[in-house]
Amino acid sequence: MPTDVPHPPAAPAPASASSSTSTPASPSRATGRPGDVSPFALGLLLRRAHWHAAAVMGEALRPFGVELRHFAVLIELVDHGATVQRDLAAATGSDKAGIMRVVDDLERKGLAVRRAVPGDRRARAVEITPEGRELFDAVHVAAEPLAERLVAELEPGEPEKLTELLTRLTRDGIE
């Protein structure tokens, strides 16, 4: 998994201030450097933060034989109960084929089961199993020290503020 985004070449130097013709300011370009004011700066930072968080949380999941894509489905199942696959796909940002593979993996591991949805012969609801719930709880215990490491560089109160800001920023995507 990449940990950084390639940097574009530097913009040409602006025209000399002593020039008699005025040139418009060059557009702000994404650099990924501190102080970047381009319209892409926040997105780049969020993407890098995601990569970092995914790598750290992946460490917590690895000993349990699951990946973040599996755990994202388990989170949805714990939060919402039995859920049809199309809703799991939407909630986890997956496509139909991807969510089928994840649910197949979870079933093979005994962590989830598919059940028929009454009144809809084609739909299948996915439910977490007792084994899935046990794994879910165990992963949370194992992830605690890694989560602390994730925010270790922040000052007291900043992890909570960051969570609040990200929640507000992503509110439209939350039910």
Descriptive notes:
It contains 6 helices and 3 strands; from the N terminus they run ααβααββαα. It has helices spanning 41-61, 68-80, 85-92, 96-108, 130-150, 158-169, and strands spanning 83-84, 112-117, 120-128. A 3-stranded antiparallel β-sheet has the order 1-3-2. α1 packs across α5. The longest helix has 21 residues, at 41-61. The model is unreliable at 1-20 (pLDDT under 50).
Give average pLDDT, whole number: 83
Q: What is the topology, as strand order, of the major beta sheet?
A: 1-3-2
**Shape category:** globular
What share of the residues does DSSP label as strand, in percent?
5-15%
Report, as a whole number of angstroms, the end-to-end distance: 30 Å
Please state the oligomeric state of the protein chains shown. Answer: single chain
User: How many individual helices?
Assistant: 6
Quick summary of this structure?
The protein is mostly helical and 175 residues long. The chain has helices at 41-61, 68-80, 85-92, 96-108, 130-150, 158-169, and strands spanning 83-84, 112-117, 120-128. It has a three-stranded antiparallel β-sheet.
Which SSEs are present, and which pair or pack?
Layout (H helix, E strand, L loop, with lengths): L40 H21 L6 H13 L2 E2 H8 L3 H13 L3 E6 L2 E9 L1 H21 L7 H12 L6
Antiparallel strand pairs: 1-3, 2-3
